[in-house]
Design a protein that fits this description.
By secondary structure, the protein is of the alpha+beta class. It has 2 domains: about 120 residues, 3-Layer(aba) Sandwich (Creatine Amidinohydrolase, Chain A, domain 1); about 210 residues, Alpha-Beta Complex (Creatine Amidinohydrolase), CATH 3.90.230. The protein has 11 helices and 19 strands. The longest helix has 22 residues. The protein starts with a helix and ends in a 12-residue tail after the last strand. The mean pLDDT is about 95.
């Protein structure tokens, strides 16, 4: 039995269920190592069963065997679920965040006369928030790959190239270095376009004397990285320079505040307060950060509403930003590991304003 599956099974008593039914692909990968698109796990003190369909019979044998007491391959997940459970008065927990209404109806039908279902929240997602050394190593490798890809991309210059061309080269550089996927579609936004926090790259040339926001990440061995840098294509105006320095200061202060025990909202306010005091509070609309792992956005939440405390082993982003419509945008983002007494940065790129021709 895997240690992670045992961790989940140990939560059954607290949730007042006999077992958990897990269907989310990221949760399943974390629990078992299974990378297929169709799977289901039942985890409890007295049952550890993994179910998949016939397409993944050999893959499940390779990836899951040894993690669970039983691995069942059937024509469908529902058929496999019916095969494995005895009739009885059982109560199974599920994550309402990841189970669709249709999937819930199918599970309910398959469990008729065998078990009832109870929504118990994101138990696996909460366990996933604390990374073990192997996970941290995988995220660090993805971050290093992404750093190298941006360095190679900007060596080709920015001025005169379109945002889309830069984004496409950045993707190629990550793929050529072994990324199995992107964490998300890269953001490359220049000038006033950078005032959109989630701007899509355009077929618009990047001009001299602008700020350019680049947000990108690589996925390696299932784990994601996430980083943002704001670059200059020459001498930018006084306001843009001042905004950049303010965001950099806010990010530096927040990085220094990272330690076990601080809440997400307290960490968010350490950066937000500086930005508000400078008169740009309404231009910083998103949270300061988020967890990163098998998904590029996961817990813990580092935002105004982040009530839970961060703990050792969390991997989080620190990414304040200021966005001025019609003028410019600035975001500086690093990926850090929460350690026993602070934070270790997984991002090696410089944070001071870099000028790229």
């Amino acid at each position: 039995m895997s240690v992670r599956a045992a961790q989940l099974g140990a939560l059954c008593e607290q949730a007042q269920v006999d077992a958990f039914v897990v269907t989310d692909r990221h949760d399943l990968r974390w629990l078992t190592g299974f990378t297929g698109s169709s799977g289901l796990a039942i985890c409890g003190p007295s049952v550890m069963t993994f179910v998949t369909d016939f397409r993944y019979a050999e893959q499940a044998e390779d990836q899951v065997d040894g993690c669970f007491d039983r691995v069942i391959c059937s024509l469908s997940l529902e058929d496999g679920l019916t095969e494995t459970l005895p009739e009885g008065d059982l109560l199974f927990g599920f994550d309402g965040r990841t189970v669709t209404v249709t999937a819930l109806e199918r599970l309910t039908a398959a469990l008729t006369d065998r078990a009832e279902l109870k929504e118990t929240g994101s138990q696996v997602a909460q366990l996933r928030e604390v990374k073990d050394p192997q996970e941290i190593e995988a995220i660090a490798a993805a971050a290093s790959l992404a750093d190298e890809a941006l360095t190679a991309t900007i060596e080709s210059g920015l001025i005169g190239r379109t945002e889309r061309a830069v984004a496409w080269q950045l993707e190629r550089e990550m793929r050529n270095r072994g990324a199995e996927a992107l964490s998300f579609e890269p953001i490359v936004a220049s000038g006033a376009h950078a005032a959109l926090p989630h701007a899509m790259p355009r077929d618009t040339e990047i001009l001299p004397n602008q700020l350019v926001v680049i947000d990108w990440g690589a996925q390696l061995d299932g784990y994601c990285s996430d980083c943002t840098r704001t670059l200059a294509t020459g001498d930018v105006d006084v306001e843009s320079t001042a905004v950049y320095e303010l965001v950099l200061k806010a990010q530096s202060v927040a990085r220094e505040k990272v330690k076990p025990g601080i809440t997400g909202s307290e960490l968010d306010q350490s950066a937000r307060g500086l930005i508000e005091d400078a008169g740009y509070g309404e231009r910083f609309g998103h949270g300061l950060g988020h967890g990163v792992g098998l998904e590029v956005h996961e817990g813990p939440r580092i935002s105004r509403t982040g009530s839970s405390s961060i703990v050792e082993g969390n991997v989080i982003t620190i990414e304040p930003g200021i966005y001025i419509p019609g003028r410019c945008g600035v975001r500086i983002e690093d990926l850090v590991v929460v350690t026993e007494d602070g934070a270790l940065s997984l991002t090696a790129l410089p944070r001071d304003m870099s000028i790229v021709g």
